[in-house]
């Protein structure tokens, strides 16, 4: 009789302990499957698609030193070594003040231009608890042309040399390989060459990236420039169009491109591209990015 009692007691303890273990396991699984927010990362490889800014920006306490070159047009022919005898350079320092604010200063040899900019992250593409279909940033810059003033009939004001750029960067990473960005743009130039040149310029940028491998991607960029006076002007301006590849090698990102734009700032390549792809007005160019981190080790 006692043996039967011991068996019932043992079964009761086993069932009770099993129920407790099951409750603990359920609690652990619930904790591990707590809903989270998954943010899209690496929509583009660098802070530029080709000439224009991408949605990407430096993280907090990261410094990006960039050097960019654009050579002369291929239609220079063999005498100009198909453009390689000429070169324009732009270099800049760009810093992540916070994860949502990036500042930069630079200088370009085209029109001896100094520039500074700020890029604010407003929205991040995400899934999970918080769903956001796109990433959104606001970009603004000011550019200063320091060429010697050539027109004696006009007063040379400092403010006349300034141009201002405002852009919204709207991007979506559709999958691990393909990303796309729209860049509605407004540019104001305080002084223009002729009455037919517009002080205010409106444009729409289109940019895309297709990832070919872990370290290699193909990029394309196009800016449609609204310019109703173009057909009446002596100097014809064309929409900026570019294709290129990104190559990542550790801390460097190399961007190699073909473009009809010689300028490397929004105030130059969007409203002042004078070369035409269909006339072999194509420039070989490259961007080199080297990132330094000042984030303290934890």
TrEMBL record:
InterPro entries: DUF5777. Residues 44-292 form the DUF5777 domain. This is DUF5777 domain-containing protein. It comes from Aquipluma nitroreducens.
């Amino acid at each position: 009789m006692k043996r039967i009692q011991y068996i019932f007691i043992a079964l009761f303890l086993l069932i009770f302990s099993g129920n407790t273990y099951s409750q603990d396991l359920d609690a652990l699984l619930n904790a591990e499957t707590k809903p989270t927010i998954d943010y899209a990362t690496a929509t583009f490889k660098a802070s530029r698609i080709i000439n224009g800014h991408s949605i990407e920006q430096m993280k907090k306490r990261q410094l990006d030193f960039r050097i960019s070159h654009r050579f002369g047009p291929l239609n220079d022919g063999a005498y100009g070594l198909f453009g390689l005898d000429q070169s324009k350079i732009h270099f800049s320092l760009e810093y992540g003040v916070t994860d949502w604010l990036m500042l930069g200063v630079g200088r370009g040899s085209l029109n001896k231009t100094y520039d500074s900019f700020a890029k604010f992250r407003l929205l991040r593409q995400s899934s999970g608890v918080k769903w956001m279909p796109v990433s959104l940033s606001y970009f603004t810059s000011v550019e200063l042309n320091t060429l010697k003033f050539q027109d004696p009939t006009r007063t040379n004001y400092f403010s006349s040399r300034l141009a201002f750029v405002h852009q919204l960067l709207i991007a979506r990473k559709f999958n691990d390989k393909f990303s796309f960005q729209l860049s509605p743009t407004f540019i104001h130039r305080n002084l223009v060459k002729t009455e037919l040149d517009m002080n205010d310029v409106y444009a729409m940028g289109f940019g895309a990236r297709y990832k070919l491998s872990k370290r290699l991607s193909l990029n394309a960029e196009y800016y449609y420039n609204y310019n109703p006076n173009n057909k009446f002007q002596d100097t014809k301006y064309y929409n900026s169009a570019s294709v290129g590849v990104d190559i990542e090698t550790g801390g460097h990102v190399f961007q190699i491109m073909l473009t009809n734009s010689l300028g490397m700032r929004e105030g130059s390549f969007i409203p002042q591209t004078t070369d035409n792809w269909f006339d072999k007005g194509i420039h070989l160019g490259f961007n080199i990015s080297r990132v330094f981190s000042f984030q303290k080790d934890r």
